[in-house]
Amino acid sequence: MASAITACGSGDDDGATAGACGPTSELRFGVHTEVRGFDVVNGGTVGVAGGHERSAVFDTLMEYDAGTGDFVPRMAESFEPNEDYTEWTLTLRDGITFNSGNPVTTEAVKFSVDRHGADDTVSLFKAQMDVIESMEVTSDLEMSFRLKDAQGDFPAVFATAPGMLADPAVFEEAGPEEFGVDPSAGAAGPYKVASYTQGEEVVLTRNEDYWGEGEFCIGTLRFVYVEDEEARRDSFLNGELDMAYFNDASVIDAVRRAPREMHTSIGWGAATVLINHGTGGVDRPGKDVRVRKAIAHALDPEVIDDRATGGTGVPSTALVTDESILWSEGLEGPAHDPAEASSLLAQAKADGYDGKITLSCDNAPAKVEWALTVEAMLEKIGFDVTLENSRSLTDHRELFFTGNYDLSCFAMSVDESLPWVTFQTTLGQDTVAQSRVGYRSPAMGRAMDELRAAGTVEERQAALFEMQAIWNEDVPMAITAHGRQGLAWNEGVEGVQFRHAGISLFDDATIDR
Question: 413-449 burial string, b = 16+ CB within 10 Å, else e?
């Protein structure tokens, strides 16, 4: 099990130092997105969307070691490949049980893979399960996976939802709806669900029978849903919250200057114009590549960032931030070029396009400024833009999940540790259900295959460089900035571990207040 990297008070650290807490202690955590049930097939498992809560309840087969950049065993004992990464053998730790008392076995792993990979699944991880050609269970603790194509980071997906195992017997008896409200009996993690109040909070209490090696001295984790970023900031700075998640660049900057301790990571493409190519069954302006290119060339990321975040963000049009180990020299996105944008739009209009387009976004203050700036830049080169930005974040998400939009603000937020997984969720090249925009490209599919198969940093860099070249020609969507995701904590919170995709682990966390 990966160990925490201790903080030195610099504000960008990977953990906090040792402390103390009592058996009845409680940590109050302000979250950005409400957990809509605990069935991991139906929900997110990244830090911004349920990853903290679901990891605490279910645990995971694998976890990310931020010190080495590798995925290492947690409930698994080992996960080993053959020479060409087309076969992987998983061995589970002996002696782990679900809270029901039933042992954690390879049956539960197969049950999870089957649910995420089912034809009628709504899982965001179906594409990753579709890579599996066959599974062979050789014992209660060992099984093998034969993949259709090589995948150098195959175990990584088992640090996310497919590796959050449910007891098949408990799930089948309860049914998905009841299990989603309280999965505690069928889970094996360090915390159990004490209460779940939709729209307000999730309360977890320590599992005294947890199998793992951490101390878990914090008795209660209270995840409080505060959708408004500034309200969450104020509650945190006032001490009403002990920890809080932030993704607004200006708010992150304010919290840092308060000052408060903060761990940050960068999600690629966190401020993006999602362009509908026709998903949802309706023809959209973005079906024309000239329209998509006109949008991309019309946007000036530096100006957008200045107006939306006060210049505190990470403006860029590229797939990968230059702060990433996966960035390589020469990797650049579409250039800001209003003259080229106007020319491309004029060509589309000459063929019958009326220039009308709708931009939808949520009503968070930073998003409102972002949308107004994007609207102005598009109108400057000849678009007739209708701006819709009165919806809450929850309501706005329904638009792009159903394909009911022309253009939408969107956070792709690709995680450096799982690039293929996140790109596949947004750009999936296999089924319409796995693409937010309806984009299809054999060339992009091949480049994404290379990224999936890559076993080294250099191989991932090469695949991403090829993806960028295709992206610049096809413009599946228009990136305006990468985003810092911040996890901040107040004095008295120590020992929290930070992993992939902005997830916090509480193995050795303490709180003293």
Answer: bbbbbbbbbbbbbbbbbeeeebbbbbbbbeebeebbb
**Who contacts 307 (Cβ-Cβ below 8 Å, separation ≥6)?**
369, 370, 372, 373
| Rg for the chain, CA atoms, rounded | 23
What the block records as the tokens of 270 is: 């966190």
> Of 310, 417, 319, 435, which is closest to residue 365 (Cα–Cα)?
310
Cα–Cα nearest to 148, from 164, 161, 131: 131
pLDDT digits (tens, 9 = 90+) for 163-175: 999 999 999 999 9
* DSSP state, residue 508: T
> Which two structure tokens, joined as six digits, stand for 141?
């603790």
Cβ(53)–Cβ(192) under 8 Å? no
Bridge partners (DSSP) of residue 275 are 407
Contacts of 200 by beta carbon, 8 Å cutoff, 6+ apart: 224, 225
* Both tokens assigned to 366: 């930073």
**One-character DSSP codes across 262-310:** EEEEEEEEEEEEEE-SSTTSS--GGGSHHHHHHHHHH--HHHHHHHHHS
Residue 86 belongs to what H/E stretch? none
Structure tokens at 117: 């990979």
26 class by beta-carbon count within 10 Å (0-12 exposed, 13-18 middle, 19+ buried) = middle
Asked if 204 contacts 221 with a C-beta cutoff of 8 angstroms, the reply is yes
pTM value surpassing 0.85: no
Q: 309 — phi, psi (to 5°)?
A: -125, 5
- Identify the CA nearest to 160 among candidates 503, 410, 440, 467: 503
Which alpha helices (DSSP H) does 387-456 contain, by range? 393-402, 419-427, 442-453
Angle (nearest 5°) at CA 428 between 424 and 432? 150
Q: 59 Cβ partners below 8 Å, 6+ apart?
A: 74, 75, 164, 165, 187, 188, 189, 190, 212
Q: What is the pLDDT of residues 233-255, one digit of tens each?
A: 999 999 999 999 998 888 999 99
| Contact assessment for residue 218 and residue 208, using Cβ atoms and an 8 Å cutoff | no
